[in-house]
Amino acid sequence: MSERVFNVLFLCTGNSARSIMAECIMNRAGAGKFRAFSAGSQPRGFIEPMVLNLLTTLNYSTGDLRSKSWDEFAKPGAPAIDFVFTVCDNAAGETCPFWPGQPMTAHWGVPDPAAFEGGTAEKAAFCADVFRMLDNRIGIFCSLPLQSLDKLSLQKRLDEIGKSGD
Q1: Whole-angstrom Cα distance, residue 139 to residue 153?
Q2: Helices assigned H by DSSP within 30-150
């Protein structure tokens, strides 16, 4: 018997950088255990070119990625979401839509590569560092023994992941 696949939604205001990276990382690191999505409260409608470049360089599939509204995941027929992680401080402070099924939530805020000021090399290095932070957090999450943790213990662990120093 196969184990249940959990749906994870990563949220950020613009859904153009951090949440997109997190979606890709989770779909690779959690393959067979998790299925990831990303969305934004005010989607920018495009993915940051430096993020696409980094993901492509790291051999992530980017063909199906798109910047989209979190409203898509609150509509009837949307995938049932088990976990919702905000990866930017703005989205964490916004009133989110009602998520059917009452998913577990946590804030895993990381800096915004799209807002970074600097030259091309500095931007690329900053973007890679944010990717590393998300990769660390998602790796920890993927290794949690979900079946053996009660809801309160799991929530504590999710919150701790978001506070990690990376």
Answers
A1: 18
A2: 49-57, 89-93, 120-142
16 — pLDDT class (breaks 50, 70, 90): very high
For position 101, what pLDDT does the model report?
Answer: 72
**Domain map (residue ranges) of the chain:** 6-153
Query: What are 99's two structure tokens?
Result: 């998520």
Average pLDDT, the chain: 90
Which among 60, 108, 116 is positioned nearest to 88, based on CA atoms? 108
Range 6-153 classified under CATH 3.50.50.60:
no
Structure tokens at 75: 């509509």
**Which DSSP state fits 52?**
H
Which residue spans within the chain are E strands per DSSP? 6-12, 34-40, 83-86, 104-107
